[in-house]
């Protein structure tokens, strides 16, 4: 269990296994919550047409993720990097994993979707 009570359903620490989600366009994400937030980024909530939907906001409004996505728009694209290069990215090793979950500011997608209360 992490400091923020995040329980990741795709990582099994005891078995040392981790699953990945790949979007139809070839983006590698740590799970379906990240992939869905990315895929739905152009959908808006019915109440306010100016803002991204709540699900996408968990990804797009996360400062660390926004910086990575702005620095290299293809950072997790299989057409630009190998699968091994993508999953070795520091964000998957230190932010969307135990060090990030044990911090005072875990990934918004994780804390929103995978926090045990």
Task: Explain what the structure shows.
- Helices cover 38% and strands 7% of the residues.
- With 117 residues, the protein is mainly alpha-helical.
- The strands form two sheets. Strands 1-2 form a two-stranded antiparallel sheet.
- Helix 1 (32-39) packs across helix 2.
- The relative contact order is 0.21.
- The mean pLDDT is 88.
Q: For the CA atoms, what is the radius of gyration?
A: 14 Å
Can you write the helix and strand succession as a string? EEEEHHHHHHH
Global geometry: globular
First and last CA, distance: 12 Å
Strand content: 5-15%
Number of strands: 4
Main traits of this protein?
two-stranded antiparallel sheet, single chain, 7 helices, mainly alpha, 117 residues
Topology diagram in text:
Blueprint: E1 11-12, E2 17-18, E3 21-22, E4 28-29, H1 32-39, H2 54-60, H3 63-71, H4 83-87, H5 90-95, H6 98-101, H7 108-113
Antiparallel strand pairs: 1-2, 3-4
Entry summary:
By secondary structure, the protein is mainly alpha-helical. The protein contains seven helices and four strands.
């Amino acid at each position: 269990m992490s400091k923020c009570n995040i329980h990741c359903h795709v990582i099994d620490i005891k078995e040392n296994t981790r699953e990945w989600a790949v979007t139809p366009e070839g983006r590698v994400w740590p799970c379906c919550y990240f992939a869905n937030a990315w895929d739905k980024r152009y959908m808006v909530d019915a109440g306010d047409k100016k803002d991204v939907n709540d699900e996408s906001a968990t990804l797009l409004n996360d400062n660390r993720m926004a910086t990575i996505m702005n620095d290299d728009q293809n950072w997790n694209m299989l057409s630009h990097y190998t699968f091994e290069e993508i999953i070795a990215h520091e964000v998957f090793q230190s932010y969307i994993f135990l060090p990030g979950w044990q911090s005072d500011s875990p990934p918004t997608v994780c804390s929103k979707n995978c926090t045990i209360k």
